[in-house]
Amino acid sequence: MDLDSFINGHPTSAPGDARLVCVSPIDGVTVVGSVASASAEQVRAAIAAASSALPAWAEVPVRARVEQVQTAIAEVLAVGAQSGQLIAAEMGKPAGEADGEFAFAERYARFCGDQAEAICAEHWTEDEEGTLLRVAEPMGVIAAITPWNAPVILAALKVIPALMTGNTMVLKPSPLAPLAVTSFLSDVAARLPAGVLNLVNGGPEAGDALVSDPRVDMISFTGGPATARAIGAAAARSIRPTVMELGGNDAAIILEDAEWGEELAERIIFGAFLTSGQVCMAIKRVYVPRSHHDAFVNELVQAAQRVLRVGDPREEGVTMGPVISADARERLERLVDSSARAGGTVIEIGSIDDALPTGGHWMRPRLVTGLDDDHELVRDEQFGPVLPILAYDTVDEAIERANSVEHGLASSVWSKDADRARDVARRLRVGFTFINCANRAGVSLRAPMGGRGLSGHGREFGDLGLSEYVQNHSINYPRAAHPGSRMAANRYPVLAVPPRRR
Ligand code: NAD
């Protein structure tokens, strides 16, 4: 599969354009496909197209915009060419799990469609002060930059609300998994007015050309902190707003009145190891009451034996594929080694299929016990299948330790008593807390999701996921400004003593 950029209503490439080759993490050699690597000039052309399309698209009544976006997505999915197999091949998540990415786009388009009219509505206030009209206007041209770990979902979370609220967009997916998202959204873009949605591919250079262009009105970014700093600096130069959906170091706090047993252990394994642990809102640390620690570690090992099978992600029944790259695997293996050197106990869990391709970035999932909180595996986002299990003595202590990291994305609290779990949740410094579940199991389209601290700012999902893309414009006509009004001083009083002329 070889794909072009999609600019101003057309696939766009020029002879001799550089190409980004996508090599599968399943064996480290198979070329799954390629995308055109957009030059700075092509990025500028995409922004120009989005700028030209903006006035007309913003004028389309919101209901009609919603219908156009929903219809475009439904038509592309009806063709049936989109499949999780492609995502599995390009970034390694199990194909069945990846199938859900396209279904998500359709579901999210329905949800946003139901919200868009309210978000874009004008509000009139008529009272003794006068007439205030508040208009929700599109932000304008949106630069959207996304990562590889859920390539279609993470792009859909930006494209759908932004377009429905009247913005136009240039999207740059990750060079590590560009194929499924570029193919799907180029087909969607082809069904919309030219220039409304444009796609360019590339690495940091293309990303930088996009976010540094003064015609961009807002940047919506999902990714890691180093990139966020570079993008934040570019946004600061022209004082443009950003939405930053960054990494997490999510704590799962299991209270001593949790429903201990097989199901709890399986839910924790799912929350931590989905997509090989490469999910922003995966469980990244587990806090367990000391009295339950050893027995629960044992439960986790047994649960992993039942549900965690590492293998070729294109095969049915596999629950964990390879990690994204050789670099990622090396970084994670170093983290495991340093955990052992620091006195941690490393426990291999799950099963791994025989005869996997040798060049694949396979990792045996692991638990690590006995680490101090200042070890990197606990302090930082590991973004891979290595999970620290930490014993605590009091709930206050667990909360303090959960809050002691720089990230603040999500968390989970596990207890039979939902009110007690909510009380603990209120004390966690994060943007989202799940009760008795975690990761994808806790996501709700109606629940805004986002972080604080190093996890970023702004929200996706819920009504807030749309309102990020509109700006308020207040148009006020005070009664005092009506002709002849004597209600208030809306002009200088006539001077009691006439001024002397000079
Ligand atoms: P990354 O920051 O390396 O890359 C993200 C995107 O930024 C890619 O498209 C990349 O090409 C682009 N980019 C890189 N340098 C750039 C620059 N200088 N200017 C503009 N764009 C540039 O992140 P990644 O490795 O792709 O993704 C993993 C990270 O994303 C993890 O930290 C994960 O937790 C986070 N994440 C967060 C969420 C969320 O919703 N909060 C969701 C998924 C992933």
UniProtKB/TrEMBL annotation:
Lineage summary: Bacteria, Bacillati, Actinomycetota, Actinomycetes, Micrococcales
Signal peptide interval: none
Protein name: aldehyde dehydrogenase (NAD(+))
Family: Belongs to the aldehyde dehydrogenase family.
A single GO molecular function term of this UniProt record: aldehyde dehydrogenase (NAD+) activity
EC number: 1.2.1.3
Domain Aldehyde dehydrogenase, residue spans: 19-473
Gene3D superfamilies: Aldehyde Dehydrogenase, Chain A, domain 1, Aldehyde Dehydrogenase, Chain A, domain 2
Organism in which the protein naturally occurs: Glaciihabitans tibetensis
Keyword Oxidoreductase in record: yes
Catalysed transformations (reactions): an aldehyde + NAD(+) + H2O = a carboxylate + NADH + 2 H(+)
Record InterPro entries: Ald_DH/histidinol_DH (IPR016161), Ald_DH_C (IPR016163), Ald_DH_CS_CYS (IPR016160), Ald_DH_CS_GLU (IPR029510), Ald_DH_N (IPR016162), Aldehyde_DH_dom (IPR015590)
Entry keywords, A to Z: Oxidoreductase
SUPFAM superfamilies: ALDH-like
Oxidoreductase in keyword set: yes
Active site, renumbered: E245
